[in-house]
Amino acid sequence: MKYLILSCILFSVLLFKSCNGQRTPSISYISQEQIKDIGGTVELDCSVQYAREYTVVWIKTGRSHSDYVFLSTGSSLVIKDSRFALRFDGASSTYTLQIKDIQETDAGVYQCEVVLSVNNKITAEVELSVRRPPIISDNSTQSLVASEGQSVVMECYASGYPTPTIIWRRENNALLPTGGSTYNGNVMKITSVRKEDRGTYYCVADNGVSRGDRRNINLEVEFSPVITAPRPRLGQALQYDMDLECHIEAYPPPAIIWVKDDIILSNNQHYSISHFATADEFTDSTLRVITIEKRQYGDYKCKAVNKLGQDEAKIHLFETVIPVCPPACGQAHYSSGKSLNGSSITASSLAILIALVYAFFKK
């Protein structure tokens, strides 16, 4: 019985020694993911067990793990960069890698490795992310030209960490074609663009770092002319001038003509035509009928045409007894007369007086 007990004790001791001698090194602790600002400081800890006889190294890899940079071996720093430092705490078997004045290029994966043999190693890793302000990429939309009714896609991409959010706005916070004053996402699509959708759009990238970034995207919409005549009926007395006006909205800018009795009018002693562009899409056109004669009364047409279509507006000019002011004010087509007190009077005033007398005796 005694021999049996002694045998069991001896077996247990041998088994314990055998187990203790085969303990495999391990990494008991590695720092969690670190997120730091540019210019900051970070410390990465790696604690090992049963690794006194083995080499422990720190290695930096890119996010794709394609590039390796050896930073330290054992308690010695390998990299020659004053921003890096290494500490070893023998009591806890912890290797601490410190990086000061963090740069954007320091972002990546840091591996702590216990090298057992050429082909055998134990690895733990921690990722260091560096906050970076957003920068809108060059492959984002810069400007667009589309015809009315077409589909339009505007894209906006930005780099930075954390990943920036993209918000779309319009100039003066006008409503977006998608509805609402803002739209979130890298891609904004307008299914059927209208001329009212033209203008400046803002792509804003923000991730809470710095002030973010913004790009102005100009959307130009091509559309056929739309003509309005603010005064479709105008009256004026004989021998006086009258201005006929029409407002044209179109893009690209259209060709504009005035027509009477199917004859295209031009600048001469009877007519004066002027165009004034108030914006890329808006043009005001004025036809001045000079010293109106009987044959100049009637219907006039203002016509505009571009590659997408055409439009026209009709203005009727009729005869009145009393001159209309303006533009008749101050015109002097008749010889001047004298008032009862000897002061001169204008031809327009004289004409108005004659017309009033004529109207009185006609009753």
TrEMBL record:
<keyword id="KW-1133">Transmembrane helix</keyword>
<keyword id="KW-0472">Membrane</keyword>
<dbReference type="InterPro" id="IPR003599">
    <property type="entry name" value="Ig_sub"/>
</dbReference>
<dbReference type="GO" id="GO:0098609">
    <property type="term" value="P:cell-cell adhesion"/>
</dbReference>
<dbReference type="InterPro" id="IPR013783">
    <property type="entry name" value="Ig-like_fold"/>
</dbReference>
<dbReference type="InterPro" id="IPR051170">
    <property type="entry name" value="Neural/epithelial_adhesion"/>
</dbReference>
<keyword id="KW-1015">Disulfide bond</keyword>
<dbReference type="GO" id="GO:0005886">
    <property type="term" value="C:plasma membrane"/>
</dbReference>
<feature type="domain" description="Ig-like">
    <location>
        <begin position="133"/>
        <end position="220"/>
    </location>
</feature>
<dbReference type="InterPro" id="IPR013106">
    <property type="entry name" value="Ig_V-set"/>
</dbReference>
<dbReference type="InterPro" id="IPR007110">
    <property type="entry name" value="Ig-like_dom"/>
</dbReference>
<keyword id="KW-0732">Signal</keyword>
<feature type="transmembrane region" description="Helical">
    <location>
        <begin position="342"/>
        <end position="361"/>
    </location>
</feature>
<feature type="domain" description="Ig-like">
    <location>
        <begin position="25"/>
        <end position="129"/>
    </location>
</feature>
<dbReference type="InterPro" id="IPR003598">
    <property type="entry name" value="Ig_sub2"/>
</dbReference>
<dbReference type="Pfam" id="PF07679">
    <property type="entry name" value="I-set"/>
</dbReference>
<dbReference type="InterPro" id="IPR013098">
    <property type="entry name" value="Ig_I-set"/>
</dbReference>
<feature type="domain" description="Ig-like">
    <location>
        <begin position="225"/>
        <end position="316"/>
    </location>
</feature>
<protein>
    <submittedName>
        <fullName>CLUMA_CG016307, isoform A</fullName>
    </submittedName>
</protein>
<keyword id="KW-0393">Immunoglobulin domain</keyword>
<dbReference type="Pfam" id="PF13927">
    <property type="entry name" value="Ig_3"/>
</dbReference>
<dbReference type="InterPro" id="IPR036179">
    <property type="entry name" value="Ig-like_dom_sf"/>
</dbReference>
<keyword id="KW-0812">Transmembrane</keyword>
<feature type="signal peptide">
    <location>
        <begin position="1"/>
        <end position="21"/>
    </location>
</feature>
<dbReference type="Pfam" id="PF07686">
    <property type="entry name" value="V-set"/>
</dbReference>
<keyword id="KW-1003">Cell membrane</keyword>
<dbReference type="GO" id="GO:0043005">
    <property type="term" value="C:neuron projection"/>
</dbReference>
<keyword id="KW-0325">Glycoprotein</keyword>
<keyword id="KW-0677">Repeat</keyword>
